[in-house]
Amino acid sequence: xxxxxxxxxxxxxxxxxxxxxxxxxxxxxxxxxxxxxxxxxxxxxxxxxxxxxxxxxxxxxxxxxxxxxxxxxxxxxxxxxxxxxxxxxxxxxxxxxxxxxxxxxxxxxxxxxxxxxxxxxxxxxxxxxxxxxxxxxxxxxxxxxxxxxxxxxxxxxxxxxxxxxxxxxxxxxxxxxxxxxxxxxxxxxxxxxxxxxxxxxxxxxxxxxxxxxxxxxxxxxxxxxxxxxxxxxxxxxxxxxxxxxxxxxxxxxxxxxxxxxxxxxxxxxxxxxxxx
Amino acid sequence: xxxxxxxxxxxxxxxxxxxxxxxxxxxxxxxxxxxxxxxxxxxxxxxxxxxxxxxxxxxxxxxxxxxxxxxxxxxxxxxxxxxxxxxxxxxxxxxxxxxxxxxxxxxxxxxxxxxxxxxxxxxxxxxxxxxxxxxxxxxxxxxxxxxxxxxxxx
Lengths: 276, 154
Fold this sequence. Notes:
The complex is a heterodimer.
Chain A: H1 2-15, E1 23-26, E2 29-33, E3 38-45, E4 51-64, E5 70-75, E6 89-92, E7 95-98, E8 103-110, E9 119-131, E10 143-161, E11 166-170, E12 174-177, E13 183-193, E14 197-207, E15 212-222, E16 225-232, E17 240-250, E18 267-275
Parallel strand pairs in A: 2-10
Antiparallel strand pairs in A: 1-3, 3-8, 4-5, 4-7, 4-9, 6-8, 9-10, 11-13, 12-13, 13-16, 14-15, 14-17, 17-18
Chain B: H1 2-15, E1 24-30, E2 32-37, E3 42-45, E4 53-59, E5 64-72, E6 76-78, E7 83-87, E8 93-96, E9 105-106, E10 113-119, E11 124-128, E12 130-133, E13 141-153
Antiparallel strand pairs in B: 1-4, 3-12, 4-11, 5-10, 5-13, 6-7, 7-12, 8-9, 8-11
């Protein structure tokens, strides 16, 4: 019910234009393959001032440490054995000024090498937007200081070649007591085959009496490997035996409607643990 | 319950004439502005100072999404002649779901901020200040710099 109220509240705010957006980039993933080497995305200026827009490419993917703390791993000059398309993809136009309420379609074109292995290749598209700067008066006697913001919005371009497939493996989960004396469940995840894995993770944790006390559903994108952690708050998880059921659901279509990777069986991992 | 959800989502789509799928939408309220500073003095703008930069964003991907917020911060500002050092620490950055001074959480802007399970359309407010220290011999003028803010899905 709380979630419903939040949706309703957010909807009212958005529809009443209380929250005014700036520069919007869509879609989240631009898909290309061996049959269609062109893609497009839209950059839209919803603000009341002109913006300078620039498009760049950066190879990267989400990673985590052994405790599930995540960040992005960007590699400036990715080696040839990494699935980077930075050197093959181009965007038109790359730099332009977008006036208030205008939109610009960006065309992407890829020229991959002919001897490319089957699989999925990608890059991050960084769309930088900066308000067009007015001339500033420099005739002052003291010091004044001001910093302007450049907003980077990061989306993804994917190129698929030949037979692309993916799967996910879950290694042995672990129960971990962190420095805040909170228990965490750690699930090492690794993608299989030649493509990233996009889908959902649903965790359900039951007491010994089979009472469901925690349920969370998250979207995940595993480009190589990652540790997913779940916090077990002390107030909910008192001393006792528990059973965690982690279900992995492949769902690439939600991110990539053009996907041809067939739907997969859900993966279920059951982990029983004891909290002292 | 299910009917309620369908009804609410229909309302969202119907009333929102700007419904963008899977986007992160950001808006800046104001830049970080130290104003006028006497040469030889330092100026500190905490995250809760009205001169701090302020912006918000929300996402429209899935019901819950994990996001990464990264600042690329300058180490100095310039007026074209001299460089004015600037620093940022834990006291200079905070975030909150609410656009108010209460309930803000501070974070170190020099490292990426991982935001977990951010609800669809839920605005995330971020404030950023900083500290500059002028020294005698610094040429007068307007010192400018650029902060790059990157928001992305994890």
